[in-house]
Structure formats: structure tokens, C-alpha cells
Amino acid sequence: MREKAWTEIPIGGAIEEAGNAETYETGSWRTYRPIWNEETCIHCLRCWVACPDSSILVAEAKMTGIDYEHCKGCGICAFECPVDPKSIEMKLETDVDKS
Amino acid sequence: MGRRLILTGNDAAAEAMRQIDPDVVAAFPITPQTELMHKFAEHVADGDVKAEFVLVESEHSAMSATVGAAAAGARAMTATSANGLALMWEIVYIAASYRLPIVMPVVNRALSGPINIHCDHSDTMGCRDTGWIQLYSENAQEVYDNVIQAVRIAETPDVLLPVMVTFDGFILSHTAEVLDGLEDNVVKKWVGEYKPKYSLLDTDQPMTFGPLDLQDYYFEHKRQQVEAMRNARAAVKEVGKLFDELSGRSYDMLEAYRLDDAELVIMALGSTAGTTKVVIDELRAEGTAAGLLKIRCFRPFPELEIAESLKNAKAVAVLDRSVSFGAPGGPVHKEIRAALFGSSGVGLVNYIYGLGGRDVSMDHIRSVFKDLETIAVKGTPTDNIRFLGLRE
Ligand code: SF4
Ligand code: SF4
User: Fold this and answer.
1) What is the CA radius of gyration of chain B?
2) Is the distance from CB of B254 to CB of B269 less than 8 angstroms?
3) Is residue B370 part of a domain?
């Protein structure tokens, strides 16, 4: 996206459009990555309720994955996950095999 | 017709605020501002105003609540002094950066320490780079007039910046003067209904205030603030003219007093300008070509007008009621020196005076004019940063 000149943007840093955080990708800030294990997930959606970045993906009342473009790796989802062993595990980004 | 009033500076500010009747006022008491808000609180208690009056637990919260209210689309005001202003600091910058047209009377008082409650300009001069417009008042009449004008200046569409209306603690805040007030309905009509550019409470245009602003856009937003400050020059002048039509009292960024043929000129702001006028009248009667160039609007700074106004002066003394430690002179002097850069032939000298409420008498002002007689002949002295009224 072309970055705009000072004459082209709203004053005061105001954002005039609702919900456009979706287009601002913040996932690169992450140190730890939540890794979801579908096998043990009971779809209680506590992670979805607790995630401060709306990064738990849900379809038809079931957890379907994690939005790594916006997840900042805070670990709240893993902390809140009630199953044992946990269905979400935090791993250092550098230790994750992304291939 | 107007109303003749006897008011202290604090009461004059509170009277203007009563007539403006902002949507929200948030405040925390600090000497010498306290009586201003006492008075306004009385108006709230008596039902004279509709304003939502928010009593907060600190000045940081006072400015935060004011910013919150302004972002919500309210016409919002607060007031403070010295250490209270210092505690607001972080949010003072934010108010200007978010382009919220807040109006804040600041009753000038020395910053601690050692602790002192009396007048100097260290508090508001410390705020000169916060992005606020600053109007300095010479007397209670100007306090009243400036507070009313500040609303329209701040809310000018191509400005949208907060305004500080300053006046000297105790000297103006606690002494009664006779002044002309406008009728309530006249003020109400003149300031008009506030139509905010953005409102957090506007559900038809949902928007965000204060998001993260990093390397990509922060610089552009600062550039917009620079432009708004430039636009404020025209707004201060235009609103001053309109206020003249309303009240018969004209206002500009500067005020010249017996300046046209003046060779020896004092530049001052605040109540000392009044003292200087009296001395000038005496000196004129004695045949000395003395004059005053008063700065009413320090931000934005009227450098071109100053250079033009001083073109016939032979010697100029700048009176600074605050110190800029380690700098070449007080804050006002430095800017005037910059404004006069390139204009040769005028001797320039700086006097730091009146810190912590140290009295400045007519004799002090006379002694400055006396010094200027020499400087007019010999040019800028090597000891060009001097202290007036200090025990050496
Ligand atoms: S790590 Fe934090 S941001 Fe990422 S999905 Fe979990 S709760 Fe959301
Ligand atoms: S909290 Fe754990 S079990 Fe519940 S939906 Fe999220 S991942 Fe599945």
C-alpha cells in the first residue's frame, strides 16, 4: 500500500474507519507461537473468549485454528485452555519448524 | 450593552467560563488557580451552568478527563497552575497531538523547587513546545476576553488546537479590577454551538482516537500540527477582529504602546506590560522616546510582526519571567533574537526578572529604560543576559 502524504491523512492520528485493525498485521511482533492440537481440543472456546487480539478462528461454534497474522503470542489462550494436557502450547518462534 | 464588573482575574476567568458554559469541566485545585474553580463550582452548584463538573484526584487525571471528554465530542475545559501543569505534562502533549480544541486557563506560578506559590512564567514557558496556542493576559479584562476568544481560536476548523490562557498568579488572579463584561446571550451566541470534527460517541461514524503511530505516519501527524500552528496566526488575528466588533476591544498577536516613534523599547508579556505602560507615560512626559511591544500570543510566535514593529527601535530590552537554564537568555529573548536575526543596528538586551513572585516595581522598569539609553548608543552589550531585582 502506498504510504500517504501529510495532507492526505486524517488529523491527530484519528482512524475514521471502523474495524480496520484487520488490515494491520501485527503477527511479526510475536516471540512465542501458540500451537493448537486439534486432537485434544474440546471446543470449549475459552481461548476465543480470552484472546485479546481476536486471533482464535472459529467456524460453526468450533475452534478451527489461529490467525498468525494478528496473534501477538501473549499466551493467554494456552493459560486458559482447561484440558490436560493443554490443547494449546506456546513455542519459541525460533524453535518452530515453519517448513 | 455591557456590564461593569469588579472581578479578580480568577473570577474573570470563571465568569467567562460560566458564560461559555462548556459541556465538561474537569479540575483539581492548586494555588493560585483554586479560586477560579471554587467560583466555577459555585456556578455549577447554583445551577447557572449545565456543564458536567468532574472532580478528579490529580491534574494528570484532570487533563486526561478533559481529553476524554473532548474526544467524545464535548467542549471541554480545565484550569491549573505550575506543579499541577507539570503533573499534566504527558497529557498536555496528547491533547495537542489529538487536535482537541480544549481551553485551559493557567494561572502562572513558579515551578518548584524550592516550593513557591507566587508568579513567574516557568510553568507555561516550559509548555512552549507542547503544541498549545498560548495567550498571555495583562489584566483581568484580558483574562475575560482571552478565555472567550480562546474557544473560537481553538475550534477554528483549520486549527483545532488547544489554547492556554495565562495570567499572572496573585498579581492578577487575586486582585480585583473593574472590567466590562458582555451579556450572557451575546457570549453564548458568539462562541456558538460546538460541532466537533470527530466524536467517539458518534455511532454513525465509528472511529478511533489515539492508536499506535509509528515510523510510517507519526512524522506526517507532526507536520500537520506545524501547519495548524501556522494557521493559528490568522485565526488569532481574525478572532481578535471579530471580538473587537462585538466588544469594542481589539486584539492581535502583539500590542504596541507608544511604539511608533519609540527608540527605547521594552518587550514584555503578562501584567508587567501594564507596569511598563505607566513608566512609559512618565518617561514620555520627561521627553524620552520610550515604548512597549507586548506579546499577547507567544504560540504561535509572531516573529515577522516583531521584526517589523521594531524596525525603528535603537535599543530593545526583553523581560523574561522565567529562566532557560544553560540557554543564551530567557525563552522570550531567544525567540526575539531569532526574529531580529539579520536586522542590524538594534541593541538587544535580556532581563530575567520576577522569579517566584519577586516584585517588579516601576523603578526597576525605569532602570531598564536607563540602561537602554546607553545600549542605543553602544549597541548590544557583552553582558546581554541580565538579572533585574536580584541581590547581587
Ligand atoms: S497467544 Fe495471545 S494473541 Fe495469540 S491466539 Fe493466544 S491469546 Fe490470542
Ligand atoms: S481453550 Fe483449549 S480446549 Fe477450549 S477451545 Fe481453546 S484450544 Fe480448545
Assistant:
1) 21
2) no
3) yes
Closest CA to B355 of B327, B325, B335, B315: B325
Residue B314 belongs to domain spanning: 254-388
- Residues B200-226 as b/e (b if ≥16 CB within 10 A, e otherwise) read beeeeeeebbeeebeeebeebbeebbe
Minimum Cα–Cα distance from B226: chain A residue:
A6
Q: What angle do CA B342, B258, B290 make, to 5 degrees?
A: 70
Q: How many domains does chain B have?
A: 2
The interface predicted TM-score (ipTM) is: 0.88
All three cell numbers of B3: 456590564
Residue A58: strand pairing partners:
A63
Grid coordinates representing A82 are 482447561
Taking each helix axis from N to C terminus, what angle separates B184-191 and B140-154, rounded to the nearest 10 degrees? Answer: 30
Q: With CB atoms and an 8 Å threshold, state whether A18 touches B223.
A: no
Cell readout for B382 is: 557583552
Q: Can you read off the three cell numbers belonging to residue B125?
A: 514557558
Q: What architecture does CATH give domain A25-98?
A: 2-Layer Sandwich (3.30)
What gap in Å lies between CA B235 and CA B213, rounded to an integer? Answer: 28
In sequence order, the 6+-apart residues with CB closer than 8 A to the CB of B3 are B180, B181, B182, B183
Q: Assess whether B136 and B269 both reside in one domain.
A: no
Contact B231, B167 (CB under 8 A): no
Would residue B234 count as lying in a domain?
yes
Same domain flag for B230 and B279? no
d(CA A91, ligand 2 centre) in Å: 17
Q: Determine the Cα–Cα distance for residues B55 and B62; give it in Å rounded to an integer.
A: 8
Q: Does ligand 1 come within 6 angstroms of the Cβ of A75?
A: yes
Is residue B26 domain-shared with residue B156, that is, in the same domain? Answer: yes
The pTM for the full model equals: 0.93
A88 CA closest ligand 2 atom index: 7
From the list B197, B211, B223, the residue facing A13 with the nearest CB is B211
Residue B266 and residue B234 in one domain: no
Over residues A58-92, the pLDDT tens digits come to 999 999 999 999 999 999 999 999 999 999 999 99
What are B257-298's pLDDT values in tens digits? Answer: 999 999 999 999 999 999 999 999 999 999 999 999 999 999
- Measuring CA to CA, which residue among B311, B312, B314, B318 is closest to residue B294? B318
- Return all residues near B200 (Cβ < 8 A) that are at least 6 apart: B71, B72, B73, B207, B209
- B232 with B176, same domain? yes
Cα(B81)–Cα(A58) distance, integer angstroms: 53
Helix, strand, or coil (residue B73)? coil
Whether B206 is covered by a domain: the verdict is no
Cα–Cα distances in angstroms (integers) from residue B342 to residues B303, B312, B345, B373, in the given order:
13, 14, 9, 22
Count other Cβ atoms within 10 Å, centred on residue B153: 25
